[in-house]
């Protein structure tokens, strides 16, 4: 949880506490006016007091196809070129090893959708040459 999320949660908890205090004050004022207890209906149950339901173990949803990528070939391939969509923008990034690929594959497609993974040869002038297409999203073939 980042600082902005934490601050937002604290603000919401303070609003909740203020609302509960206001309810208590209203009930106390009714009691003061009548001079006795008034049969107020019970408040609706608070979601925070509800017991969580136990859910059966569900299989993890897999979005698309599992990404199985081979290792780079020594001296011929230097990095992975990952093509992905972030919103409506198509972007690509170079990654020197495959350790990031499983994490990327698990991201929801609403955040980031990997479309293609290629192996590349890094040229001495800072450019790269695609060597092989290693994986392509089933919808993009």
Walk me through this protein's architecture:
A 4-stranded antiparallel β-sheet has the order 2-1-3-4, with no helix packed on it. The protein is built from 2 helices and 4 strands; from the N terminus they run H-E-E-H-E-E. The protein has 2 domains: 3-42, no CATH class; 79-140. The chain starts with a helix and ends in a 5-residue tail after the last strand. With 141 residues, the chain is α+β, with helices and mostly antiparallel strands.
List key phrases describing it.
four-stranded antiparallel beta sheet; single chain; 141 residues; rod-shaped; alpha+beta; 2 helices
- Mean pLDDT equals 82
> What is the 3D shape?
rod-shaped
| Arrangement of strands in the largest sheet | 2-1-3-4
Q: How widely separated are the two ends? A: 38 Å
Total domain modules? 2
Uncertain runs: 60-64
Series of secondary-structure elements, N-terminal to C-terminal: HEEHEE
The SS-based structural class is alpha+beta
Tally of strands: 4
Strand % is 15-25%
Biggest beta sheet attributes? 4 strands, antiparallel
Helix proportion: 25-40%
In short:
This protein is of the alpha+beta class. The protein has helices spanning 3-34, 101-106; strands at 79-86, 89-95, 113-122, 128-136. It has a 4-stranded antiparallel beta sheet with strand order 2-1-3-4, with no helix packed on it.
What's the helix and strand layout?
Elements: H1 3-34, E1 79-86, E2 89-95, H2 101-106, E3 113-122, E4 128-136
Antiparallel strand pairs: 1-2, 1-3, 3-4
């Amino acid at each position: 949880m980042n600082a902005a999320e934490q601050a937002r949660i604290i603000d919401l908890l303070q609003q909740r506490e203020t609302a509960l205090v206001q309810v208590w004050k209203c009930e106390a004022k009714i009691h003061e006016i009548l001079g006795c207890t008034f049969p107020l209906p019970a408040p609706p149950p608070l979601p925070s007091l509800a017991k969580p339901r136990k859910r059966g173990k569900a299989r993890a949803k897999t979005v698309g196809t599992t990404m199985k990528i081979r290792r780079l070939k020594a001296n011929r391939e230097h990095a992975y070129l990952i093509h992905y969509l972030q919103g409506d923008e198509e972007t690509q990034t170079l990654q020197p090893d495959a350790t990031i690929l499983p994490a990327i594959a698990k991201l929801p497609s609403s955040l980031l959708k990997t479309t293609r993974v290629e192996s590349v040869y890094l040229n001495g002038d800072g450019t790269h040459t695609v060597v092989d297409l290693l994986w392509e999203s089933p919808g993009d073939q």
